[in-house]
Protein: EGF-like domain-containing protein
Organism: Anser cygnoides
Amino acid sequence: MLLTLLDIIDLYTPTSDYDCIGNQCSEYGFCQDHLHNYSCNCMPGYEGPFCEVEINECSSSPCKNGATCVNLIDHFSYCLVSFAGFSGQYCEIEMNECDSSPCLNGAVCQNDVNRYDCFCPEGKFTASIIS
């Protein structure tokens, strides 16, 4: 058998671009050539042998405090808050309504979930503000 120069080079070259020709990677995968085959490297948010499966980021239930997860395309999800009082990507941070100093005249602010109470100094005021 007589080998051509191209055959000899191909035998001793660790990789060749020929395996990626006609590959089956989806539009969300990039072909990576190997010695006698190829693999698909997936973009974030996709998996599978050909990067054909979109990952559902909501399947792990990342949202906290009663928030609803919404799965979006391209490796992104966000949480919809079912009620106010929380922030953060996963609604995991309780907001402190006392941070804005809503209580006046020396009243002490006590934070609660989605509300605050103002406690007036004893003997000075008789009203309590609840927001």
Remarks:
- The CA atoms of residues 15 and 35 lie 5 Å apart.
- The first helix runs from residue 5 to 12.
- The longest strand covers residues 29-33.
- Residues 96-131 form a domain with the Laminin fold (CATH 2.10.25).
